[in-house]
């Protein structure tokens, strides 16, 4: 079968399309015929990212959707031929393994590209908004970089919870698209310059939860934008800045909570619990409302390098997906 790998090249990491044997389902795994798989920014970042220092070639693709071909020992509750979506081990391939405990049945109204866009992205949002962020109905959520895959997933999840939303973007057409998806307040800014509007919208109180996929360049202003007992989720660093000023006086006086969001070292039981909660509480709402993940663009299987370039150029609104015949 064909599969995409990341390998170390002379000028840095390179994507390589290989011919490899099909994997076999091991304990707790599902082997699926992949129909679509989506891109996640973190899986392409070496050093500080999910790839580490890339000492060995790595099969790429973290989330995928397809039909079950076979099941490994100990797997129950699934059937061969069933439509499934989940965290993938090498999802940019014609066949891939899914972690059975983190797999979800695809809603009837989902197309393959929708199923491929949910498993990692929405579980990260669930981690931020529900598991750690404890966002409640009526609270305010600040989404910096709102047009990203995690941003658009968090926008939907916030609406299912009943929270209010403020989103930022450096491009006006992205904010227009997000307003059509239910974003209440859009702030046109790249990086900082959002606190004044946050305070105006919240009556001077600040937001209850802020999402930071950008990095340390906006950290100080996000701290200033939080309400009493506000929470701040650190989920990315596309600005490449890992250190920034932290007003510990504000953290102290306002009783703020700052937490990290990453699947890199997360315990399997934690991931499984998030999947179970999302499947039971939120997936039925998506089915009832006929909601789907927001898809920006679909690329053919052999166009992964172009898909990565499109995502890294920050042209997208929502998810970038590979369609696999």
What are the SSEs and their pairings?
Elements: E1 2-9, E2 12-19, E3 29-38, E4 58-59, E5 63-71, E6 83-89, E7 95-99, E8 104-105, H1 112-116, H2 119-132, E9 140-143, H3 149-161, E10 164-169, H4 172-180, E11 185-188, H5 195-201, E12 207-212, H6 219-224, E13 226-234, H7 248-253, E14 257-260, H8 268-281, H9 283-289, E15 295-300, H10 304-312, E16 319-323
Parallel strand pairs: 9-10, 9-12, 10-11, 12-13, 13-14, 15-16
Antiparallel strand pairs: 1-2, 1-4, 3-5, 3-7, 3-16, 5-6, 6-7, 6-8
Helix pairs in contact: 2-3, 2-8
Describe the structure.
By secondary structure, this protein is an alpha/beta fold. The chain has helices at residues 112-116, 119-132, 149-161, 172-180, 195-201, 219-224, 248-253, 268-281, 283-289, 304-312; strands spanning 2-9, 12-19, 29-38, 58-59, 63-71, 83-89, 95-99, 104-105, 140-143, 164-169, 185-188, 207-212, 226-234, 257-260, 295-300, 319-323. Helix 4 links the parallel strand 10 and strand 11. The longest helix has 14 residues, at 119-132. It starts with a strand and ends with a strand.
